[in-house]
## 1
Amino acid sequence: MKSMNIHRFQGREGGAKTKFRPQFRRLYEIDRLIRDGEYPNYRTLSEKLGISRKTAQRDVELLRDGMQAPIGFDSGRRGFYYTNRTYALPALYLSAGDLFSIFIAEKALAAYENTPVYGHLVSVFDRLAKSLPESGKIWMNAAWLDQRFSFFHEPKTMIRSDVWDSMARGLRLCRTLLIDYKVPGYEKGMPRRVDPYHVAAYQGEWYLIGFCHYRKEILTFAVSRIRKAEMLEDERFDYPLDFDIKEFSGARFGIMWGGKNYRVRVWFSEAIAPYILEREWHPSQKIRKNGDGGIVMTFTANHLLEVMRWILSWGGGARVLAPKELAEAVKRELAEAAGRYTEEKHGGARK
């Protein structure tokens, strides 16, 4: 990713953005009064802005000393004026800490490089940088930041820009989409009419959540599997006011969800326990220490496929205690995997 010219953002070392927010509107009103040639002073500013003279004085001092405004005082007119009439108050005031955060956010955007939104956001950063005055630059060593901060993103799927654009328009305009959806393992795609409700990003993939006219229910579609998408101009739908993605997804574990809740209990060995304790894996999780040095985690999930994959990732350091169907699914998966290695040992597998 091409790094933006971060040195063009304005600010003063050590400035704090929160300091300026309560005064933001007042500062721009004072700037307008000065630029309009009204020669305001502390008394008139106090009356016009409804503030004390002391507050007016602090605001003017902030403009002059903190934001480098060329403010002079005309004793004849008894008011303030700009000694440099070309001065313009910056549209944004950013501290060095703000710039640092923006740079980190820009690097994090690489997670969305597989969508057109990535290019749009990079363009926004660039326009933001170019829109600010050249004076009062903060120089930041971008090479140093590149050496000290890295983002290891999930493998990304590829998304067609025309599919993304049609999906975004359908979401914005509440129009039904006609999609050609490719299910893994099938050569031909499936045409579906979908009312788009929501888009979610998860582990390098984007998912479209909407009402499927064929199945007559709300489904989740991986956007990378949509080969074509057409927004149907004449098919408008009413967005359901009672649709709430958090309520709809419920006790999900990952991106998949279903209609039935399962009480999941998993034992983790003493060696694996420290890694489990480092994170919150599910909002409902509860952890109890075992006498053998291991732990037992309990949580509620409404779909078991991704729970099974997560448990398998811990190898022999995890064992399902409940529900029974999850334990059986893990056993079958492990038995099949072990069988593959047995076949190889006896010459049955082919490279």
## 2
Amino acid sequence: MRISDLAHLTGVSIRSLRHYEQKGLLRPRRLENSYRDYDEGAIEQVRVIQFYLGLGLNTNEIKRVVNCKGQHIWEGDHTTCADRLIALYEKKMQTIDDEMQVLAEIKARLLGRIRWIQEGKKQVLQEQL
């Protein structure tokens, strides 16, 4: 199938599909006219890529997941990659935890500023009375 067909079937832009190919996540064969030709398995590959993007992994991390030991994880047994995958997932969770801590600190500071402004408004209103 052509890249436009794959884009239509998956809801992923042609630009993104080309990016996935550049990163080695998709490997279409090239026709004599240099057009990309995707097999039916490419639909599932794109869905897997989208799943991992939704988990917050970047394309380099996704490549490590789907190409573990040179095999796509959706093609059979991937137990030999389990330790590497667990380490990657744990690292990603730690990054999320760190980001949540930073966001909690920012939220606390914003709440403090809101309270400070509200108290200032109350004080101005009381002085006007």
## 3
Amino acid sequence: MSTLRLDLEYDGAGFAGWATQPGQRTVEAVLRKALVKVLGAPTAELRVAGRTDAGVSASAQVVSAVTTGAIDTHRLLRALNGTLPDDVAVRRVTQAPDGFDARTDARSRAYEYRVLPGPPSPLRRTGVLNLSWQLDVPALRACAGAVVGQHDFRALTPTKTGHQFFDRTVLVCDWVERADELVLTVEADAFLRHMVRILVGSMLLVGRGHWNVGQFTRLLDGAPRSAAGPTAPAHALTLVAVRY
């Protein structure tokens, strides 16, 4: 047995998320199918660093795959990319240490959420959330600064959830002006389902002047989901880094 590390990039628009689901096109199912075709047998196990939701993209997803026998990683990289569809690619294949687990060994994950205030951009419509109004950037940054640290984030995940523990430690959270876009960068030890998108939806209420910063910060101490803002659309969210 040997363990491989696969670094993936994919456009989430055509996928119902990472995890295999009956009757749905998912990144995991597409990758498994390609591995079976190339290797001639299913891998024993696939583990992923971040289980992205439907519509969420990744520029730096990490997957560990347990296989039988020796693998030529360069040939595998070429063969997989010759088999995978155009909206997902393996950017790198490396031999990982025995026992490497892409999920449990990850120390943190980082996401970016892109917002375009003002006139729309047809060329970026699949990758940004376009808003027809301007936003209060200092207020957004004050919200982001409050998120850093350990908090009870149960307000920022659906009420019906498999999560039992809602504390997460956010290492980085900030809004950055990147040309004409506003980009939320957030890095944490782990994330709850929909956590980043509900963070964005709640912060945008502050950015538009509907809430003040204090109303937002009260969400970080175990408030119910009903107290938070809407879930922002998935298409503007990208997994951009996994740290080990």
## 4
Amino acid sequence: MDYLLAALLLAFALLGHAALWVGFINRLNAIPLHYLVLRWINRPAMVLCGVIALLMNAHVVRLFWFWVDAPPSEPPANYPTVATYYFMVCWATATLAIVTWVYRKCVSERHPVSVISSEMIDVAQAVDIPLAHGLKARLSSRLPGNQFLQFEVRTLEVELPRLPPELDGLSLVHLTDFHMAGHVGKPYFDEVIRQANRLDADLVLITGDIIDDEQCLPWLELLGELRSRLGIYFVLGNHDYRVCPAEQLREMLAERGLTNVAGTHHLISHNDHHILLAGNELPWHREPVPFDDLPCPAESARILSIALSHTPDEFDWAREGGFDLLLAGHLHGGQIRLPILGPVLSPSRHGVRYSGGTFFRSPTVMHVSRGLSGMMPLRFNCPPELAKLVLRRERSGQGEASAVGGGRSSC
């Protein structure tokens, strides 16, 4: 019984230890620090996390054998009080993590969607040349179950509470997190573009982290091959400034027919109805356009407002502006989703709360894509994603009641 109790207390403490350090790393990486600074903090932090876990095991073994050999009334010599306090912190953290996990399962912010179609594209099987380049990518590609050379093409119906009747059925393709760096070959992105065009959407919207390496700048030509009826719009992400200045990259994308919405807005028309597009590159690049500068709908009309942000951490900004839909990426779905637990690593100030999926907090629906690639060539139970969203009015009829007049909350 003593062995079992010691093992259970140690396991619970290690769970809290992992939750504490993973939470710290997730939120650290949500801060707009230079990527080299983050790299030099992340690696020592991970090593320190492992060392402390080993010390916790050694401490429990030493303490257990003391209580077996000595009377309970006598504390061990040089008893490590700091270790005791750390164990208490870990037990409290583990309790909080479990309560939070249960609460999110019971009280979900997820917005229900209808999956119209889903198809897994295994690009490695479809081409005759190797797609993984570099030692890390080649070794990773041999791991059983690794999905980083595949992507899922999904068509989703998403209900918006205030969607005007004239825009029911509007479709958009959401692309994000290409991470063109060379470790995934160009044919992979050729197939992404081909599949995106096959979806035949009204709008194509890109939410950043397009390029990571100068050698891949010519690959931007691929984005010029994208097709849509109402245009292709983008914001940049935190990785995009690593190759060239952000303004230079924006100009290169504009030359290929893409329209920047970061720090500005665009008003387009479809079926004699207006669609407002605005972008937010915080906390890394441009400030978003002030809400006072955005057009307000007339009393008898509604503007469908869509916001682009690289990170879902700007959800509150979108809600404050009264946007109907926010598109984001950045978190890659966590890249690795554990059975039952789900994702663990998610560089957000909300941790894994918005790692991927569709969420609703009035008045805004947010879709967070799992992205198309990443600098870490590991994807387990979390394939890359190319999503087409078909916007629908609420079937409950509430959308019709609020579609007229209910513009942005700041109007």
